[in-house]
Amino acid sequence: MLVYHNPLHQGHAPAHEFFRGERVPCFESPARADHVEASLRAWGCSLLAPDVDSTPVLRQVHSERYLKFLEGAWQQWLALAPGNASVQPFPSVWPVRTLRSDFESDNFIARLGLYSMDNGTPLASGTWAAVKAGADAAASAAARVAGGARAVFCCTRPPGHHAGPDFMGGYCFINNAAVATQALRNQGASRVAVLDVDYHHGNGTQSIFYHRGDVFFASIHGDPRTEYPFFLGHADETGEGEGSGCNLNLPLPAGTTAAVWFEALERACTRIAGFGADALVVSLGLDTYEGDPISRFALASADFCPMGARLAQLNLPTVLVLEGGYAAAELGINAVHVLDGFEQA
Ligand code: OKP
Ligand code: ZN
């Protein structure tokens, strides 16, 4: 399988995040992608460097002011106080209901809150370079698929599916799956389906396409009544306006095992087949794995092979984009299982 990787991902290496009120090492670590790259090479893949500039597509899926903030954020943070190079910026105030989000405060921490959905998305010195290279990898993968490739895997981190039109969140800054989707649309696909199999609902992707009839978004995830991101991903969200009927959420309870998970996959695939897409984007989160430290589904490593096979049976030109998966040492083999299952189908 053709694989694009992100040669700059290691520059995004924040030291810690907050978990149940405690400061802990980041679950979303450079080691994740390092393990996937090692497993891909052992499987026989060579990894391609991005060869497309995603800038025009980025402007189609994210707001201009958010992109501008993200690109300059680390420099603004450094300018705030001497010594900030070794400190992580941390949002502490958000424009929730009744508060104004139509202008940028002069205060950096206020701007950080304006553009964040949570306090769990740490910025580092190399974040912009890493997320831009990740978007370039996603656009490169889409270009190959638009050019006739059967399937291309985009091996990148940090993930993207929680990032919305104008906000970061859930370790995500740029929505790589949305970039791939929009790039496929730009290059001739009339309709694109996005299937998000990460444990967490892809709120960002849903929001970016919620009013659009040319993109169908389906997601199988931990029920947001108890799981992050809590405030989106419920079964009654079916799309609006021209996007009415183009959004499918399949929340499942914590503890869900393979048999039930694959029933949901079947429902998602049936709806995707009915949509009549020209191409498929898979938000490939592997945190449904039973060993994942922050998620609560119970898929075994071997279950990722039939997952890949079922995705292939949709018989659509496919971009697969890496999202979550925090059992870092097992992440590589689980990713290869999906890709191998896809190719064997
Ligand atoms: C990203 B992806 C906040 C901790 C909450 C949210 C999990 C993000 C998962 N202090 N972390 O969907 O795998
Ligand atoms: Zn996840």
Automatic annotation (TrEMBL):
Residues 28-338 form the Histone deacetylase domain. One of its GO terms (molecular function) is metal ion binding. Its cofactor is Zn(2+). Coiled coil: none annotated. The keyword Lipoprotein does not apply. Pfam families: Hist_deacetyl (PF00850). One of its GO terms (biological process) is epigenetic regulation of gene expression. It comes from the Bacteria. Signal peptide: none annotated. Keywords: Hydrolase, Metal-binding, Zinc. The keyword Hydrolase applies. InterPro entries: HDACs (IPR000286), His_deacetylse_dom (IPR023801), His_deacetylse_dom_sf (IPR037138), Ureohydrolase_dom_sf (IPR023696). Belongs to the histone deacetylase family. PANTHER family: HISTONE DEACETYLASE 8, HISTONE DEACETYLASE HDAC1-RELATED. This is Histone deacetylase superfamily. It comes from Acidovorax delafieldii 2AN.
